[in-house]
Amino acid sequence: MGADGASGSGPAGPVDWDALKAAATAAMHNAYVPYSKFPVGAAALTGDGRLVSGCNVENASYGLTLCAECALVGNLHMTGGGLLRAFYCVDGGGNVLMPCGRCRQLLYEFRAPDMELMTTQGIKSMDQVLPDAFGPEHLEETP
Predict the structure, then answer these.
(1) How many angstroms separate the Cα of 40 from the Cα of each of 15, 22, 25, 93, 133?
(2) Tell me, what DSSP letter sits at residue 91?
(3) Residue range 52-88, pLDDT digits in tens
(4) Which domains does the chain have, with CATH numbers?
(5) Which positions are annotated as active-site residues?
(6) 69: closest CA among 37, 43, 35?
(7) CB 110 within 8 A of CB 83
(8) Which among 61, 74, 108, 129 is least buried, having the fewest CB atoms inside 10 angstroms?
(9) Where are the beta strands (DSSP E) in the chain?
(10) Which residues contact 77 (CB under 8 A, 6 or more apart)?
(11) Residue (of 71, 80, 23, 22) closest to 46 by Cα position
(12) Are 15 and 8 in contact (CB under 8 A)?
């Protein structure tokens, strides 16, 4: 995996990071941001090769605002579920954005084992952006 943002690859072949950026940018143009004026778009590639995306949707109460990653995970489930293997998020200028801590946790829940994320410092693994994460495996009952 290249730290320069070059194409990483997974079990299903190389990730087309340019296509993910384009999909995230297209999603960002659908953002509803009348309060912050800070549109965000996210796109991900699933393990079975589908592209899912989402944008942020604000609410006057602020606390009910949906991040782009939340919309993306909803889209993932609406289109057949599965796991995310590559992720890209952009701001209104098309610049790479790192998901906030809450959204990293959300992405962790729906990640494929070798999920990669485009970051401001190049391609990183989910374990690199959320080390020692708490997940569903911690809720499993032990015999």
Answers:
(1) 21, 13, 8, 9, 24
(2) E
(3) 999 999 999 988 999 999 999 999 999 999 999 999 9
(4) 11-127 (3.40.140.10)
(5) 69
(6) 43
(7) yes
(8) 61
(9) 9-10, 13-14, 40-46, 51-55, 84-91, 111-119, 122-125
(10) none
(11) 80
(12) yes
